[in-house]
Amino acid sequence: xxxxxxxxxxxxxxxxxxxxxxxxxxxxxxxxxxxxxxxxxxxxxxxxxxxxxxxxxxxxxxxxxxxxxxxxxxxxxxxxxxxxxxxxxxxxxxxxxxxxxxxxxxxxxxxxxxxxxxxxxxxxxxxxxxxxxxxxxxxxxxxxxxxxxxxxxxxxxxxxxxxxxxxxxxxxxxxxxxxxxxxxxxxxxxxxxxxxxxxxxxxxxxxxxxxxxxxxx
Length: 217
Hints:
By secondary structure, the protein is α+β, with helices and mostly antiparallel strands. It contains 5 helices and 7 strands, in the order ααααβββββββα.
């Protein structure tokens, strides 16, 4: 009976606390808001007092530093954006040639080590931008390079196809293929998927089209 009586008294105190809780929370919020306003006011007053008492030379120094820093940030952002949205064919060429030289299958098909590039080099650049896909929906396309060039081995020559895209400011080689100019006309997939084999045929057609439309000198 005593335990039940104390429990009932505790329940009454709990009910009183629950009734006062919204008022206590409201008072705490008002107090916190007052402290925040006071802190901001003191900070603004101190900054204003400091600025009003600075010498002209100090004002000029901080103004120059702020302008120089803002210009540096703008140039840095512009450089990063340019690097992310542009792709250089010579870098794609070096990356593709390195992958071909590092492939044992390519070396065997071309006739041993010592693979060197030839004089043929053609490429197509697709700039970054918004494009309509097959479903007529707007889609972002990363910058892309599709390239074709020839290489020479100790026995055979080969025609290399490379495709690379720029994703998040990093170069990603999506396809590297090699057509060996031997009797069997072997095709070697160095990197990527066989589904990208059509890139080679597209670039060959592009090279043939340019040769056909070349003006006669």
